[in-house]
């Protein structure tokens, strides 16, 4: 689901109740994917919003309204590095389509769309919103997975799990511990396949999300093009090879991993300010991290 393989790991408990817990958690995560995705053929309120004429208000279900508010908060706090309105631009780049692209779109098309996106989603009532122009399209791709793993973990706990991990293609949610030791989370080396840059030792309720330029990318005329865009230029962000954020709130951690990727090392102070830890591999491969991260990373 969510374009990746999701793995559930549980320590202790009974086989049968663990399996029930996993099934229910997976169902909840699939529900969330269906509610937020703009990339499959089923309709949902996000797609309705995106096709309602600009200027007309649309009432969003509470859950979508809440994640949109969180998104706009992160957009503001990150000085626009995170932007939930990149839907059309993301589709133009094409990284989420089944057919992987192999060359970048026309520069004038990118410019035309990008110029219209800044702060283009506006409140229009209690849980109602409008978009200012037709290029403005909601895309929760950088936050919904973090929200989904957090909700999935809640379901595991409600079903009796005390030590568990959900791993959605590197977006990780943890609770408890791995038996008598902490959970060990390897952070992938962004350039050397199969290598890690270090291992995080983590316990209790925590989310760890990495955004990287090595999952969905192509090389065109010697340059790397990937799926995390700088909302200012409309081009793949250039400041990082990967960014990892650790924190309590899965949705926020996911959103900030994308924002931090766009910002590069200068974003670490912001992440810290909002009570999270993080590490960034910058464009030249250098590692930067918060103090809290240093104390948990084994290299
Ligand atoms: P992944 O999907 O690999 O876990 P991210 O959480 O960083 O990685 O999300 C990337 C997705 O978010 C893109 O595929 C796109 O849909 C969307 N996106 C790209 N750039 C941004 C951005 N600057 N702000 C918000 N969403 C973005
Ligand atoms: Mg993200």
Q: How would you characterize this protein structure?
A:
The protein is α+β, with helices and mostly antiparallel strands. Helix content is 33%, strand content 25%. It has nine helices and 17 strands. The chain has helices spanning 15-36, 45-51, 62-77, 87-93, 107-114, 144-158, 250-263, 268-273, 291-294, and strands spanning 6-10, 58-59, 121-123, 128-131, 164-168, 171-175, 183-188, 196-202, 206-212, 217-220, 223-226, 229-230, 235-236, 240-247, 277-282, 287-289, 297-298. The protein has a seven-stranded antiparallel sheet. Helix 1 (15-36) runs antiparallel to helix 6. The model has no long low-confidence stretch (mean pLDDT 97). Adenosine-5'-diphosphate is lined by residues 82-84, 86, 90, 95-96, 139, 141-142, 145, 171, 211, 215, 227-229, 231, 254, 257-258, 262.
Task: Quickly describe the structure.
By secondary structure, the chain is of the alpha+beta class. It is built from nine helices and 17 strands.
List segments where confidence is low: pLDDT < 50 over at least 5 consecutive residues.
Answer: none
Output the number of helix runs.
9
Which secondary-structure class do the elements indicate? Answer: alpha+beta
In this entry the ligands are: adenosine-5'-diphosphate, magnesium ion
Give the total of beta strands. Answer: 17
Strand order of the largest sheet: 1-5-6-9-14-15-16
Helix content: 25-40%
- Tell me, what's the shape? globular
What is the H/E string?
Answer: EHHEHHHEEHEEEEEEEEEEHHEEHE
Radius of gyration from CA coordinates: 19 Å
Mean pLDDT: 97
Q: CA-to-CA gap between the ends?
A: 32 Å
Sheet with the most strands? 7 strands, antiparallel
As a percent range, the share of strand residues is: 25-35%
